Amino acid sequence: MLSSVLQSIQEELAPYQAKLIAVSKTYPKEILLEAYEAGQREFGENRVQEVVDKAAALPEDIKWHFIGHLQTNKVKYIAPFVHLIHAVDSFKLLKEIDNRAAANNRVIDVLLQFKIAEEDTKYGYEAAEIFEMLDELPWQDLKNTRIVGVMGMATYTDDQEQVAREFRQLHTYFKRLKDTYFKYQSYFKEISMGMSGDYPLALAEGSTMVRIGSKIFGERD
User: Fold this and answer.
1) Contacts for 15-18: CB closer than 8 Å, 24+ residues apart
2) Which domains does the chain have, with CATH numbers?
3) Is 188 buried (19+), middle (13-18) or exposed (0-12) by CB count in 10 A?
4) pLDDT along the chain (221 residues), means of 10
């Protein structure tokens, strides 16, 4: 059953050449292993202790994505193995990731999180803050982090036009960043947007990776 769900989603993503991040937060390791055995290799977690425990117990070739709000004092725990940090929302956090990556002789890829939703509960930079950071702060001096794209979460609403508009806005921000700061960096190519309830809209607006949990693993307790 789980393998057929994964295959169905992958077939939806194929025309867009988008990646599937299986959001495995709160699900037990046994279910993740079942998904792994069905071919899934990229998993998303939003709690540091949970991803540390799962990374230690599950196959080493899994690529772990940290998709939640990350506190600077927790970066050290995931720096040895994390594949991509989706939600960088301050220069302070970016610097800490760089320091911890250097300590582990790694370069860690990150996404800048834009606040595109109209909900106050969502984290992320306001657009003006990101452009100000890139214009004024010494982010290019950070040698052990690599900004590879952007991430955002749309408003939780049934209004599909609003959701599509928010995703479209994130794609616009991505293009502006690409043209202004990353024109010659081929690695700057990721737009992480879309979850179980809205990923078809995200794909239509240019998402390169979708974060899907409940559609794969079932509703959480």
Assistant:
1) 16/203, 16/207, 16/208, 17/208, 18/203, 18/207, 18/208, 18/209, 18/210
2) 2-217 (3.20.20.10)
3) middle
4) 94 97 95 96 97 97 96 98 96 97 98 88 80 93 97 94 96 97 97 96 98 90 65
Tokens standing for 22?
């299986």
Evaluate whether 163 touches 157 at the Cβ level (below 8 Å).
yes
Radius of gyration of the chain from its Cα atoms, rounded to whole angstroms: 17
Largest distance between two CA atoms of the chain: 51
Q: What pTM was estimated for this model as a whole?
A: 0.95
**Three-class secondary structure of residue 179 per DSSP:** helix
- What Å distances lie between residue 39 and 20, 22, 36, 141, CA to CA? 11, 11, 5, 38
Cβ within 8 Å of residue 152, ≥6 positions away: 113, 114, 115, 116, 117, 124, 166, 167, 170, 192, 193
* pLDDT given for residue 122 in this prediction: 58
**How many angstroms separate the CA atoms of 80 and 59, rounded?**
15
Residue 85 in contact with residue 70, Cβ under 8 Å?
yes
